[in-house]
Amino acid sequence: xxxxxxxxxxxxxxxxxxxxxxxHVWSQETPPAxxxxxxxxxxxxxxxxxxxxxxxxxxxxxAVVQLTDLGHAASAKAYLDQLLKANPDDxxxxxxxxxxxxxxxxxxxNNKELQPQSITLLxxxxxxxxxYATDPARIxxxxxxxxxxxxxxxxAIIQLKSAGEIVAPPILNQLSxxxxxxxxxxxxxxxxxxxxPVVQPLIAALRAPQEKIRKIAADVLGDLARPSDALYLWNxxxxxxxxxxxxxxxRLALAKILGKSPRKTYELNRHEAxxxxxxxxxNLYQKHEAKSENQSVWVWDNAAQTVVKKQLPTQEINLIExxxxxxxxxxxSPDKQDVQTLYLAMALALEAYQVGWNQPLPEGPGTAFNLxxxxxxxxxxRVLALAMKQGHTPSALAALxxxxxxxxxxxxxxxxDKHSSLIAALNYPDRRVQFAAATAILQLDPARPFPGATxxxxxxxxxxRGEGTQAAIVVDSNIPRGQTMAGVFHELGYDTxxxxxxxxxFKAATxxxxxxxxxxxYNIARWGLSQTIANLRADSRTANIPIIIYGPLRLxxxxxxxxRYYPLVKYIVESQNSDDVGSQMKPFLDGLKTPELTGALRxxxxxxxxxxxxxxxxxxxxxxxxxxxxxxxxLDLVSDRALASNALITLGSIPTRSAQEDLVQVVxxxxxxxxxxxxxxxxxxxxxxxxxxxxxxxQVTELQKAYQAAKDPKLNTALASVMGTLMxxxxxxxxRLQKFxxxxxxx
Length: 747
Fold this sequence. Notes:
Elements: H1 3-17, H2 57-69, H3 73-85, H4 90-100, H5 102-109, H6 117-133, H7 136-144, H8 150-163, H9 168-177, H10 181-193, H11 199-205, H12 211-224, H13 234-238, H14 244-257, H15 270-286, E1 294-301, E2 306-313, H16 314-332, H17 337-355, H18 368-375, H19 377-389, H20 393-406, H21 421-424, H22 431-444, H23 453-465, E3 470-475, H24 479-491, E4 494-499, H25 502-512, E5 515-521, H26 529-538, E6 547-551, H27 556-562, E7 569-573, H28 578-590, H29 599-618, H30 631-636, H31 641-651, H32 657-668, H33 674-691, H34 697-709, H35 713-725, H36 730-739
Organism: Gimesia panareensis
Signal peptide: 1-25
Protein name: HEAT repeat protein
């Protein structure tokens, strides 16, 4: 509001206080307002406070501003309503913005008496100005003005700066196409004047195919970028694939950003570049939590010959950027194993993310999976170790699949920590990884016992059921308290074993290999808390078992700080209420697992598990794997025609009386199909041959009756093999020989 207008308004107010009420007449073009005239606290209408009754949108806006400035916002609201109902276009809104300034719109929006209409007006103004500021024709015109007089150039830069980051793409596009050095200098100078908004587009331009663009981007970033942006200049500065001009520009830019003398760029070196890039890539590899929200990212578009802004999920951006940084680090030191491992892990992680949890990795030329196969088992084993250490399940799954195809039995005995990464994967928190590790080990077909063989069978058995018991260990030096906490965890669904010392907890965890988590009371003895955690994390058998520490609230910050460098550790406040404990620990444990398996995948896992159990049985590997724990779940699957064969083959190799009784039950049950009973009879004969007759005479009698009643030729023959294994005496043999009738008479 101008000074003269304000004075006139005050004069009018004084005049009106003398009870002078002028008459106002609306023009014929503008119909009277439908709403009654607003009144002030003194009984005067809002029109009485104005020199004239507002008719046009411009006058309505003036009335709103004047009345609000005079402290009569409630009276101004009716005029604001009329203004919005008139639906002013962008041109008019921008005209009002130029007249009153953005601050006036903001001030009105903050006045509660004018809300929500004043907020609507502010949003209309912002949208109109955004459309005006980002109009491509306007921006291109301003860019052309950079070649004008100094005054025109200064005005153009001011206007371009107000538009923000969107001016970078057209400027870079013109730089890509321009061959005029003078024009290039004008455009480069303009970029240096645009400030922080163009930093991210320029970082994307560092990866342009044109040497000229990369050099200009490095030059300008040296003036605009912050130390946190220096990361993206290390590769242009020290990669041997970069031309000399780009290297020099990037090194000078790094020196400026990091506060070093441009004459001492030698203080920065290739080794430091490789280390910075590797650590940055590793940091992005660690940020693998699933996030649904999208994030803006600038990339170079070859077709457009400039940078473009895209919206991608945060997790995908982290993987793409991490893979790029890992590749740049690899350029610095191609033979460094830790960088090779990180790059391969990032490549597998990105492809796994792109296809989704429940889909197999793409295979064939140019895929990350084929790259893993070509890299050899040692490299892939290192990827598996890194993936488990960082809790990155997708790349762990990919590594296990590759190891199953290219690995050897020596992987089961390699000394990474104290046991191999493949063995450690059997106890990883996610069951997908556990199953993949078990099947990978079975593919290697070990010829002698190895640590974790019993764990393989328990994983396969759990897959048969689709679920399994969840075990846990509680370490507490106070026996009653330890038993109480064990009871709390039991209520949450965990089969919990309490022990008294850190050493005992460690031993139990390494021996059982089916532990979902280890709970440690904060004040445990022999070993203490820190030593117990260190030992659990140092041994690959326990390195990936989640650790839950419980204690009083007052110690939470202290213990969380002291354990911050250990993965998979969570502090909870001690409680005897299972709901309270569950609400603290379950989000932590659930966050370590992949999405639940679909019904179809559960069926696939069940069929695969049963196949491998039957493979153990037929491959004579029962000296390595004890199949006894699988007996009951295997028997439950005999009724499924698709699974019956492998289930019966597995039962035939379990050296127990109950397994032989199970086979007799299937053979003698008439409701089973003849082909299923046939397979059961053949396995029963094999079982009796290998382990002897273990069933009683009553069951033998049932077998004899089944043989006599069998009409199906194949079933009858299979049952005959069973009867033969019963070691009939000479009398029975003679009777059977006499009863035999040849198909053709003797000549």
